[in-house]
Amino acid sequence: MDYDFKVRTSVERTKVEDLFEYEGRKIGRGTYGHVYKAKRKETFATSDINKLISADQKEYALKQIEGTGLSMSACREIALLRELKHPNVINLQRVFLSHTDRKVWLLFDYAEHDLWHIIKFHRAAKANKKAVYTPKAMVKSLLYQILDGIHYLHSNWILHRDLKPANILVMGEGIERGRVKIADMGFARLFNSPLKPLADLDPVVVTFWYRAPELLLGARHYTKAIDIWAIGCIFAELLTSEPIFHCRQEDIKTSNPYHHDQLDRIFNVMGFPHDKDWEDIKKMPEHPTLLKDFKRNNYQTCSLMKYMDRYKIKADTKAFHLLSKLLMMDPTKRFTSEAAMADPYFQEDPLPTSDVFAGCPIPYPKREFLSDEEQDDKSDSSKQQQQQQQQQQQHASQSGSSNHSHGHHPQHPVQQNNMQGGMHPNYSNHPGHPQQQSHPQQNNSFNQRF
Amino acid sequence: MAGNFWQSSHCQQWLLDPSDLVRERQVDFAVVTEEDYQKLFIFFSNFIQVLGEHLKLKQQVIATATVYFKRFYARNSLKCIDPLLLAPTCILLASKVEEFGVISNNRLITTCQSVVKSKFSYAYPQEFPYRANHILECEFYLLENMDCCLVVYQPYRPLVQFVQDIGQEDLLGLSWKIVNDSLRTDISLLYPPYQIALAAMQMACVVLQKDGKNWFAEIAVDTDKIQEITRQILALYDLYKTYDEKKEIQGLLAKMPKPKSQPSRPPSSAQSQDGIQGTNDQSMGVNN
């Protein structure tokens, strides 16, 4: 490589740290890397040092990709985001390549909210018996925009592969107020072993809650239907403020897609699928294991209707009808994004709005900065072990009183580590065991606020 | 991604004007002739093709790597990065983008070494000189110079559709090969992939004496562009008639503008720097 070429390009290259202020402004971290809330630095025009160019006050999300160099997932992310343009898909503004430390930085518009924080806020309010005032159509507007964004991705043959509340961003005050932005496409991450095992990167938990049953039964390929299942899960969670397929998250280091507890949870809500409902279930790689591990009789009283009824979502509502189409066990019978967007639910009053907050005040707090010490604490391994021991003890006593068959797994330590916040899909303040959780005492969910 | 070509970075940023190419290449044309330049690019396109085949990559990935290679030199002189280094870098980046599994650094370097030795020793009698760290460094420059535009649309997909549409499936083999050959020209920098596919198919019709006149008459396409593409591919075949790469390439590579790993400065000071480096190495050896 030519020396003069290197010198010339290094002079011409704008460095992220010269252009943006982001020190001490970290708002998230996970397998993908670190995200900062950044703003432009005040810069002097080179021609006239006295003329201060006032920095634009706009906020940006600056993501430093985990690891160094160009991993396949970084490549896919840059390649695809460079081409994508849709109001409900996160917009890549710029890429910074830092040649000296081989770090890759991506610059996005800043989104103040995300569904993980929004749902968490509602759950906390519910626990404290406080009302949260939100527009009647908010859930509908959120769902419609999620579907719109996914429809765009799907019509470009891009699968998200990792849809969950934390990846659904919502813009705060500004010209795009209340607009959904789908972020953090799974790209290649789930296919290829990342540089570090996913479990090593605390405090992120790889969640199975949004995984479609066919994936849990060993389906080898991601499909559009898998994204739709996840949207169904998110819709249910917006309606009830509880993750519909909540399941303890141990065993996350396993590479085996088969996940007994997660399937058990799905059947506990949905009932065990009849052969006529899902004919191809017999062809699933893990079907023999399924027959060995599960008895249909144990789930005879379970149905989505019953589950949602506990949250006062009646079976004759359009919301329930659409939900049941999104959460079809048989992937071939699941709605497409197109069919879902044409559903009568969206034509019924109250109609969805492009600002999901419909001009009302936004009740949710702004993102907080994560302090670095906090993180150092978290990654302290001895502390982690301590917590793990505590949790195991806790868990042992819990499973003693529980009639669940799967109480013998040690709980993963990561769950507790998450408590200090961060934008991770983890419900550490969750009211205990899924069984207890499935009997909600009160129903301050979004759609019944008014 | 099989998205919308018309809204792609390929369509909006990377369909260049022939005059752009000529302008950007003036620096190199001062050192080698236009024809020599073309011959060098034929050579390196072949190198990328053979390297890709040895790594068992699909033609789609190889074609993308070749377009990356051309995009870089459409904006930079051959002097900036040794094409022998950029070629495997393009292969590495294209394989990641097209998601055909990561090629390990080790495998890439070993394949480069063995391919240079077994297939291209007539051009490079010495060993392949680069290591993984060179390729990784180069990858950042490649990405940067392409303005992060990584999704490239290739003529293969439209070609398959057109051949099905015209209902003469036996055209596919030959037209596919013509598309492959077009990678040895500037065509992929100048024309949208569907036009390249149409030109290749029309050429195949002529060679195989198939009648496609009605089909071509019915599609609304700029026939001038198709003719331009055809002319450039035919010019390539003409060149092949008289050109003996095995004889000429060493001379061409010797003439080619080359990177200097040292800053341009008077020879004496360059020497003294070498001297300092030498002692540094020695002292490190002692410390270890």
From TrEMBL, chain A:
Asked if the record carries the keyword Protein transport, the reply is: no
PROSITE patterns to which the protein is assigned, alphabetical = PROTEIN_KINASE_DOM, PROTEIN_KINASE_ST
Protein kinase domain residues? 21-346
Keywords, A to Z, come to: ATP-binding, Kinase, Nucleotide-binding, Nucleus, Serine/threonine-protein kinase, Transferase
Q: Write the protein's name.
A: Cyclin-dependent kinase 8
Q: Which PANTHER family match?
A: CELL DIVISION PROTEIN KINASE, CYCLIN-DEPENDENT KINASE 8-RELATED
Similarity section: Belongs to the protein kinase superfamily. CMGC Ser/Thr protein kinase family. CDC2/CDKX subfamily.
TrEMBL record, chain B:
InterPro entries given in the database record: Cyclin-like_dom (IPR013763), Cyclin-like_sf (IPR036915), Cyclin/Ssn8 (IPR043198), Cyclin_C_2 (IPR031658), Cyclin_N (IPR006671)
CDD domains with a match to the protein in the record: CYCLIN_CCNC_rpt1, CYCLIN_CCNC_rpt2
Composition bias type Low complexity, residue spans: 255-273
Boundaries of every Cyclin-like domain copy = 46-144, 157-238
What keywords sit in the KW lines? Cyclin, Nucleus, Repressor, Transcription, Transcription regulation
- The lineage's top-level taxon is Eukaryota
Instruction: Report the coiled-coil segments.
Output: none
Biased-composition ranges, Polar residues, are 274-288
Q: Which GO terms describe its cellular component?
A: nucleus; protein-containing complex
Localization per record = Nucleus
Which residues lie within the region annotated Disordered? Answer: 252-288
Instruction: Name a GO molecular-function annotation.
Output: cyclin-dependent protein serine/threonine kinase regulator activity
User: Mind listing the GO biological process terms from this record?
Assistant: regulation of transcription by RNA polymerase II
According to the record, the segments passing through the membrane are: none
Homology family = Belongs to the cyclin family. Cyclin C subfamily.
Q: What is this protein called?
A: Cyclin-C
